[in-house]
Amino acid sequence: MNCNETKFVMSLYLSSELDATRMADFELHVQSCGPCARELEYARHCDELLRDACLEEPVDAMGLRERVLSEISKPRPRRRFLFPRRVYTLPIAAVLLLAIGAGIIYFSLYSNSSQTVYAAALDDHYSEVVKNPPIGGWRKRPEEIRAFVRQQLGDADFLDKLSPADYHLTRARLCDLPDKAYVHLVFKNDVHEISIYVRRKDAELPGATVETVNGCALHAAAINKFEIAGFQSQRYTVLVVSDLPRAESLRIARNAALGLT
Predict the structure, then answer these.
(1) Which residues pair with 62 in a beta bridge?
(2) Are 188 and 170 in contact (CB under 8 A)?
(3) Helix (H) or strand (E) holding 173
(4) 58-86: per-residue pLDDT in tens?
């Protein structure tokens, strides 16, 4: 991939719309090309500024609600009908208000949901692993970790399949992302520490699918120079958080998806 191709697909890379092969080619070029790396960093910074500005803008639905209620309450000229009809005014108004309320709630939640779980995972990884404060609740001995995971998820045999190559599991504890309990597993090698969050499978993960592995849709997000990759197997929801390049982050998630059922 050359510089012109990199500029052409940069927006697709930032929105996680590249396939795995193109993504790897893009990252290899950026790692060896200073100008493209600086342009990517600038584009990512602008993207984060725009996202933060949008998230800070409150969703004010009161004006819309007042206009709708005003239209509903306006008197209407009576019409004469040749045949008698039953009056449905109140049920229709109630259904309309319910639909409007549901739409407002959905819009408010959907506008923020696509990044909520990924941002929460990053915040937890940064505060508990990168900063590494002296907090309680960690299980550190292998047998203690397995017993804890089995208690929380009903099984611990999958841990060996989840562990990335050249990493070893150092500790585990329970955390909330943002309002659902996950088992937080920390893996370490000679250079990096990564977090893998696991819970029983429930709602689908947000965001576009990067690729599909073993029937699992892989998702990816980049926040503040950290990479978050996620997928759902038949039994589990899994999030991988690290400061690794995206290709490496996806490789770890891909191998985990291949090992889990």
Answers:
(1) none
(2) yes
(3) strand 168-176
(4) 555 666 667 777 777 677 666 555 555 55
